[in-house]
């Protein structure tokens, strides 16, 4: 990880063009349509973020989306995309962490996602967050006919602990 820092904000319909540029370049054969993405950005049960370097707020380096109705026990990470030039600088990790935090705030107890079976880097990253493999959806990604690995994270309540060496007075 180099000295990259990232800022994130809620995505809006004004970000649609920049999101779709990334979407079509990263997911060339199975990209979402603009209409689908617009619907996601406007969905009150969804939480979409865009990420950028602080010195270049108009250049979207990544985005991520979560479907998590407030109070529902389950949520789904819908998509995560990081521009090729921004990879391996902690952005994917930051986006996932933000989505997990939002799912927790909305009351989710489980977060699900599908990841391409031919993307071991993403699988490792999700596993580092505690996602575990539940099963496989054969031929899920079309037209490539690539399997999807279904993963789940059990969302624990935030815990606090005393710092090592700290003392508490009554």
Summarize the structure.
By secondary structure, this protein is an alpha+beta fold. The protein is built from four helices and seven strands, in the order βααβββαβαββ.
Number of domains: 1
Strand content: 25-35%
Examine the secondary-structure arrangement and name the CATH architecture.
Answer: 3-Layer(aba) Sandwich
CATH class: Alpha Beta
Main β-sheet: number of strands, strand sense, barrel status? 7 strands, mixed
Measured between the Cα atoms of the first and last residue, the distance is 42 Å
Structural classification = alpha+beta
**Remind me, CATH topology?**
Aminopeptidase
The CATH superfamily appears as: Gcn5-related N-acetyltransferase (GNAT)
Instruction: Kindly provide the radius of gyration, computed on alpha-carbon positions and rounded to a whole number of angstroms.
Output: 17 Å
Query: How many distinct helices?
Result: 4
Question: Total number of β-strand segments?
Answer: 7
Please specify the SSE layout and strand pairing.
Layout: E1 7-10, H1 16-26, H2 34-42, E2 46-52, E3 62-67, E4 74-82, H3 91-105, E5 110-116, H4 120-128, E6 132-141, E7 146-154
Parallel strand pairs: 4-5
Antiparallel strand pairs: 1-2, 2-3, 3-4, 5-7, 6-7
Task: Provide a descriptive summary of the structure in words.
The protein has 170 residues and is of the alpha+beta class. The protein has a single domain (7-154), classed as 3-Layer(aba) Sandwich (Aminopeptidase). The chain is built from 4 helices and 7 strands, in the order E-H-H-E-E-E-H-E-H-E-E. Strands 1-2-3-4-5-7-6 form a 7-stranded mixed sheet, with helices on both faces. A hairpin with a 6-residue loop joins strand 3 (62-67) and strand 4 (74-82). The protein is globular, with a radius of gyration of 17 Å.
